[in-house]
Amino acid sequence: MLHAAARAAECGTASSLHAAAGGQQPQHHPHHQLPEAPVEPSALASRQWVQRSLPLQQFKAVGVSFADRQSLVPTLHKEQGVAFVRERDNPHDPHAVSIRTLDDRSLGYVARDQTFHFTQDLCFGAVGSVGQQGEQGLWGFNVLVQPSLPPVEALALPASQAPHLALGLRLRGAAWERVKAAVVAAGGGRCSITGAPLAAPAEQWVFDDGAHVLRLAGFRLVAPEVSQVNGLLALEGRRAAEGATELLQLANAWSSDDVAAYLAGVRAVAARRGAAEWRLDLEWLRERGVDPPRELVPP
């Protein structure tokens, strides 16, 4: 199966996938405007329209000779899904973009003079080609990606914090209504991930894995189908998980192996996080005069 980037072209830290080098989940640009899709209720159809509207770019991976990457790169195959993760806490280059397998193994980097193309802190792409320099030379690879396309992703929330995915549904009061109106206006009424016209404010979370703090960083407009993908781990075993998994696969144009590798990585991170006691930081709400739900305020 072609990756989303390649499909779009046909149609017309040591950071990680789930936590940046400093222990924070990659953040996206909530008000980065996608090309405006036609009025279309389907999140998938809107997403595919956006993909056809954005340029497909090719990059050569660098840094492939370090660590165990020379044993990993030869196992890659054309059109295999990969992730691009901004390493904001990289001590050598805060703009560094790491290229990783979907189960979160380091493959290399985007060249420093090309990282400006990446407007998302996390996005997905595909292997374009893999090869070796002569019989004994280094293995290398190229990637295909739309670096401004936001990711459709499942969040690695610790089980104890999973219910907070629906935090916005529990907020009340005039201050919250003002915040919600501002989020809707900033997003143009469309999903920030797919461009779909049916969208509602959804939380943006930052994980501080070192301090075990889940921090609210704001809200953005998200289609209901995308929210289900975000909360996919909590849906597993239920009928709704089938639709969310299908959207995850189709929106990213992944193979079934890509989906399996990605979800295995998400589950592993969520399980590790679930072994610790996490604290919720809702200061973002208080700064805007919004009272957090009483049950989430520690005594």
From TrEMBL:
Keyword Hydrolase belongs to the record: yes
UniProt keyword annotations, A-Z: Endonuclease, Hydrolase, Metal-binding, Nuclease
Protein's UniProt keywords contain Nuclease: yes
Ranges where the record places region Disordered: 15-42
Sequence ranges of Low complexity compositional bias: 17-27
Domain HIRAN: 57-115
Xref: InterPro entries: HIRAN
GO molecular function: endonuclease activity; hydrolase activity, acting on acid anhydrides, in phosphorus-containing anhydrides; nucleic acid binding; zinc ion binding
Protein name according to UniProt: HNH endonuclease isoform B
Source organism of the structure: Micractinium conductrix
